[in-house]
């Protein structure tokens, strides 16, 4: 029986769809292309999540990919504060991983475990069980390099990083402007930083780091982690750029089908898709400006809307799916009527990958989460960068200034939000302007390069195959 001799690997995503989605794709690739049997260990809570359930009920799981749900964490016991997203995520994850050892033993000790940044507790468990533990970085290589560099920065700088007079120079990489610095490193005294720092300081313990990127997308940062003396002396674990691993297919609801049918009726490249990831939200004032800016731009659109709040990531990880979301209650008076036929407002969640892959979609206004960025590039869709929280401002800088597939909105002097005229200007620029043409042609090039990297002669395929081969060979020892 073939299955019996295939190496068995455990893949463990932290809480949140932004982790589950790419690690699931990683698991699928191991199974489908590299002859590995995978147990996907899923953290669960007592809170329902419609989007997650929809994701996990895909009928197309390959044989040899098994979902193993960890016992549910009672999230009512975990303090809730919309401004401390990472802290909550880490506490839930730690709580869930109390069961990891017994689960791994019951599964017969897998050959290796692959997890992401916020589950480094798994490194200790694997150490006890003598299982090599790898990290899958769900973000850019540039940000991964930043994380590997942060312990040094932390030991050398006394003030807050936000007080530094100059951009932060990660060895061999593009400097990070202070205003773009990841949220979790903006105040070193609070738990958000402590959790972040705790996990990133443990990165060197990994047996290897899988990077969700590829050689052509971030050549400079990859080269720097591999070759720069600083990273050699940490020493950083070997890195394997294996991306872009993005969601391949979606289980569609009736509303999703309707949305795609609407898209079928629109001209090629004519629709701008607007979404802020699995949890991004805007303030009332900002959401109103966005609605007006969009209307003024007169472009066709699909807009995934959430109830406005003051905490940018309020929907993150905990969108219960049961909350009523009625756009009429918070969009400007008459907006839905005036834009009928031109645009589609979708409450809470849309089939993003199907939309980005549709020929009528010509632009993506995005919060620059790394999965969304990769999905846009892999489908050749130029972006408007609208970063909200976490490392998204750093991603926006990378997409605009280094990769050249996005434009960024500007805040007017004296303002704290993007005004409607600016939104109108940038939407028109990407959909109809000259600058839009330039980034569109660049993103189309990268779409091809992404497909090549993943193909059986490509760099990403080769990298993953080399590790899978190692796991297989170890088995025969
Ligand atoms: N997503 C989706 N529909 C939505 C919003 C998000 O399918 O309406 C998916 C999106 O395709 C991506 C993920 O959710 O795969 C969001 O991940 P990302 O890293 O972009 O952002 P995060 O949610 O972690 O901030």
TrEMBL record:
Keyword Transferase found: yes
EC number: 2.4.1.-
Domain of life from the UniProt record: Eukaryota
PROSITE patterns membership: UDPGT
Oxidoreductase listed as a keyword: no
Keywords: Glycosyltransferase, Transferase
Pfam families assigned: UDPGT
Alphabetized InterPro entries for the sequence: UDP_glucos_trans, UDP_glycos_trans_CS
The protein, known as: Glycosyltransferase
Organism: Durio zibethinus
């Amino acid at each position: 029986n073939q299955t019996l001799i295939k190496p068995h690997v455990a893949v463990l995503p932290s809480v949140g769809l932004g982790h589950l989605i790419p690690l699931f794709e990683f698991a699928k690739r191991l199974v489908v292309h590299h002859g590995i049997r995978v147990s996907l260990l899923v953290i669960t809570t007592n809170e329902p999540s419609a989007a997650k359930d929809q994701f996990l009920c895909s009928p197309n799981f390959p044989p040899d990919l098994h979902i193993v749900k960890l016992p549910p964490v009672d999230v009512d016991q975990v303090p809730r504060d919309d401004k401390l997203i990472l802290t909550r995520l880490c506490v839930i994850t730690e709580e869930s991983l109390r069961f990891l050892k017994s689960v791994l033993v019951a599964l017969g000790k897998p050959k290796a475990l692959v997890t992401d940044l916020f589950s480094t507790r798994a490194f200790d468990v694997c150490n006890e069980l003598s299982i090599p533990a790898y990290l899958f970085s769900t973000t850019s290589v540039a940000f991964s390099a930043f994380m590997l560099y942060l312990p040094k920065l932390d030991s050398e700088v006394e003030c807050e990083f936000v007080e530094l007079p100059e951009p932060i120079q990660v060895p061999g990489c593009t400097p990070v402007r202070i205003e773009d610095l990841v949220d979790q490193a903006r105040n070193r005294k609070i738990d958000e930083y402590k959790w972040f720092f705790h996990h990133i300081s443990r990165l060197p313990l990994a047996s290897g780091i899988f990077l969700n990127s590829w050689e052509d997308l971030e050549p400079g940062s990859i080269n720097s982690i591999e070759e720069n003396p600083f990273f050699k002396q940490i020493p950083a674990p070997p890195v394997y750029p294996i991306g872009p691993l993005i969601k391949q297919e979606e289980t569609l609801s009736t509303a999703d089908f309707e949305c795609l049918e609407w898209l079928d009726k629109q001209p090629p490249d004519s629709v701008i898709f607007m979404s802020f990831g699995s949890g991004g939200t805007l303030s009332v004032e900002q959401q109103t400006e966005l609605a007006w800016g969009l209307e003024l731009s007169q472009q066709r659109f699909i807009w995934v809307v959430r109830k406005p709040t003051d905490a940018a990531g309020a929907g993150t990880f905990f969108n219960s799916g049961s909350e009523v979301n009625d756009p009429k209650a918070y969009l400007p008076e008459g907006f839905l009527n005036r834009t009928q036929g031109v645009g589609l407002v979708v409450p809470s969640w849309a089939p993003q990958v199907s939309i980005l892959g549709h020929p009528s979609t010509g632009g993506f206004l995005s919060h620059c989460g790394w999965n969304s960025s990769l999905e846009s590039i892999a489908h050749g869709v130029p972006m408007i960068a609208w970063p909200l929280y976490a490392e998204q401002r750093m991603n926006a800088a990378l997409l605009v200034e280094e990769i050249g597939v996005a434009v960024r909105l500007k805040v007017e002097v004296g303002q704290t939000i993007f005004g409607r005229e600016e939104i109108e200007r940038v939407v028109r620029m990407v959909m109809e302007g000259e600058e839009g043409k330039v980034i569109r042609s660049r993103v189309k090039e990268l779409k091809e390069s992404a497909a090549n990297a993943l193909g059986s002669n490509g760099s990403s395929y080769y990298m993953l195959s080399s590790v899978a081969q190692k796991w297989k060979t170890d088995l025969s020892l």
